[in-house]
Amino acid sequence: MRCPFCDAADTRVVDTRTINNGTEIRRRRECISCHQRFSTLEEADIRMPLIVKADGSREPFNENKIRVGMLRALEKRPVGVDSIDRAVNAIKSRLRASGEREIKSRDLGGFVMDELFRLDSVAYIRFASVYLSFATIQDFSRAIEAMEKNNKSEDC
Q1: pTM of the model
Q2: Percentage of residues in the chain with pLDDT exceeding 90?
Q3: Residue 151 and residue 74 in one domain
Q4: Residues 70 and 138 placed together within one structural domain of the fold
């Protein structure tokens, strides 16, 4: 690992820790030449599937798009950043676990809805209204009834 300060090739590892539930390793390093310290992150290089849009076009998975969509739905809701990070990581894990090279954007949206359902019912309805293109009050009513029915079945 090259030093980002002096570009020397020799650095030594001072400390190593696992983070994000053991999916990443944070290493604290020190340059042998200039003695500056810096951190590096290491994670497995697992290819995320391509996202197949409704029009048939394909684009790489973009974690930031997922996060922004969830943050928009969760705006002014009492959900912490750590919970959102866990939800995004759960979606990424689900994508990796599928083993697919491509996944439909509709399925990815379903994964997001599943996580929002667990986090906050208002955010779930907000996201669903845009994602499922609600056009009438009845669309909202049906979604709320389905959500309440699902909550009751989980309570039993």
Answers
A1: 0.64
A2: 55
A3: yes
A4: yes
